[in-house]
């Protein structure tokens, strides 16, 4: 821990008495002091973050179980190990990312040299979401640290066990002069959003995203908005049935469907649907047994409000599989819904739960019209053995991210940017893209004083220029 550690805002000081301006002021002073700039300091913070996860892995997995009934192995794979991977990647490449990038210097400004110098933005705000409460709080913090910033982290109040653990442990490991955790909900977030930040990275729904962006606009603060949307899953007639079914079932029912990049709905021909739906049902049974409610590996909905919202969607079609809901227990069965109308709520709103509506189209020639007639999604999935078909869809349909013959696994590729487009978000992070998000790339020209051609100075007499 740094010698200059400043005590973080105590939990009792939240709410009405919460001094958001004072907090940001302290961090800004620390940033200006230059304490966050060196490669050594950044590396030390990243290693400390990694140590925090390693030292308390079991407690984090317990917290994820308490919040979302996440199986320990799932919590480890999708949250703990995912952030550890981000940290190791940043540690490995940080020195290179921080380097100046030399560019060519034209004759007109010779003698001199030109380069792009990455520099930290300053004091940034990270607002996390509840569905991957550990990953979505810490994964943006990794590039914020790597880029040399001070940061305030506001984890989601809807995952209280994980948020409380982050609040307890982070100050024990990171430089308290540079990093603070602010627990709380709308009131605290609103107080934070009133302050001037150098960047805000927000993960969550689009409605709050608009609030974040409007607040940021008052200070001309740039934002990264990691939002959601209805991500289509297109299955061509030639898709490998067994693997496709297993990967879709995994993508849709992991974390009980509460994944921003989960396939939202299926798009396929009636002939494919007749083969695919039983195969998805088989794959789901293989993962969670006959009764998912009894499975230790099947998640719960974050709260009863969201469970009731999802239960209402079940009325919008016929359950080919599942269809049971127990709102009090926050349980929604893994469900495939057929016969849905495109006007129904389940096809109008992002589902964000374990319900997979099936949209049958007569011909795959209609896929582009269908997808492009809706908001640009966060993710798009194509299952096909025909590379030309997959390329056609990728070429013609816009989405934040895309995957061919799998779901969600682009998240495991450190060098791919992760972010939405249009209503599914703006900006991106992960790997070097995250470093860039939290850096300013300053253009520098360094000149010598020899050779000062007078031609560019007034007076512009005719003898100087021959036009
Ligand atoms: P949310 O938008 O309700 O909350 C997210 C954060 O915003 C929380 O920290 C919360 O405290 C804060 N917040 C809530 N209301 C606020 C207000 N009025 N003013 C200021 N701050 C406020 O979260 P949600 O909508 O339930 O999350 C689900 C959505 O998030 C889905 O649309 C999902 O697709 C999206 N999501 C996106 C990603 C991504 O990486 N792109 C990841 C996870 C979730």
UniProtKB/TrEMBL annotation:
Aldehyde dehydrogenase domain sequence ranges: 39-444
Which Pfam family, any one, appears in the UniProt record? Aldedh
The membrane spanning regions, by residue number, are none
- The active-site annotation reads 226
Which PANTHER family does the record associate with it?
A: ALDEHYDE DEHYDROGENASE, ALDEHYDE DEHYDROGENASE TYPE III, ISOFORM Q
Similarity section: Belongs to the aldehyde dehydrogenase family.
Protein name according to UniProt: Aldehyde dehydrogenase
């Amino acid at each position: 821990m740094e010698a200059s550690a400043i005590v973080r805002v105590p939990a009792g000081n939240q709410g009405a008495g919460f001094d958001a301006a004072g907090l940001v002021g302290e961090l800004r002073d620390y940033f200006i002091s230059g304490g966050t700039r060196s490669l050594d300091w950044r590396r030390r913070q990243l290693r400390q973050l990694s140590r925090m996860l390693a030292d308390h892995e079991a407690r984090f997995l317990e917290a994820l179980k308490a919040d979302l009934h996440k199986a320990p192995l799932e919590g480890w794979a999708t949250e703990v190990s995912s952030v550890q991977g981000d940290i190791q990647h940043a540690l490995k490449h940080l020195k290179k990312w921080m380097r100046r990038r030399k560019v060519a210097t034209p004759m007109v400004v010779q003698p001199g040299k030109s380069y792009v110098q990455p520099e930290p933005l300053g004091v940034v705000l990270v607002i996390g979401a509840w569905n991957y409460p550990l990953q979505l709080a810490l994964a943006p913090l990794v590039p914020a640290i790597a880029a040399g910033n001070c940061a305030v982290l506001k984890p989601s109040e809807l995952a209280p066990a994980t948020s409380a653990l982050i609040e307890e442990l982070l100050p024990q490991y990171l430089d308290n002069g540079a990093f603070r955790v602010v627990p709380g909900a709308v009131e605290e977030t609103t107080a934070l959003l009133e302050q001037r930040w150098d960047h805000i990275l927000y993960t969550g729904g689009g409605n709050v995203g608009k609030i974040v962006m409007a607040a940021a606009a008052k200070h001309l603060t740039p934002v990264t908005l990691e939002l959601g949307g209805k991500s289509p899953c297109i299955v061509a007639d030639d898709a490998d049935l067994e693997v496709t079914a297993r990967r879709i079932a995994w993508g849709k029912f992991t974390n009980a469907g509460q994944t921003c990049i989960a396939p939202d709905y299926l798009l396929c021909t009636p002939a494919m649907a007749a083969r695919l739906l039983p195969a998805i049902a088989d794959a789901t049974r293989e993962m969670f047994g006959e009764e998912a409610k009894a499975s230790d590996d099947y998640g719960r909905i974050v709260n009863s409000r969201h469970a009731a919202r999802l239960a209402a969607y079940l009325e919008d079609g016929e359950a080919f599989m599942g269809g049971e809901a127990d709102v009090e227990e926050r349980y929604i069965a893994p469900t495939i819904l057929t016969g849905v109308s495109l006007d129904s709520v389940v096809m109008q709103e992002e589902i964000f739960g374990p319900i997979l509506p099936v949209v049958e189209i007569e011909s795959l020639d209609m896929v582009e019209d269908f997808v492009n007639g809706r908001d640009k999604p966060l993710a798009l999935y194509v299952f096909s053995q025909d590379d030309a078909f997959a390329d056609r869809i990728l070429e013609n349909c816009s989405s934040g991210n895309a995957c061919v013959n799998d779901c969600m696994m682009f998240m495991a590729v450190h060098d791919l940017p992760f972010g939405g487009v249009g209503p599914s978000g703006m900006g991106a992070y992960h790997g070097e893209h995250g470093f860039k998000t939290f850096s300013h790339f300053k253009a520098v020209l360094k000149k010598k004083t020899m050779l000062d051609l007078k031609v560019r100075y007034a007076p512009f007499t005719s003898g100087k220029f021959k036009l």
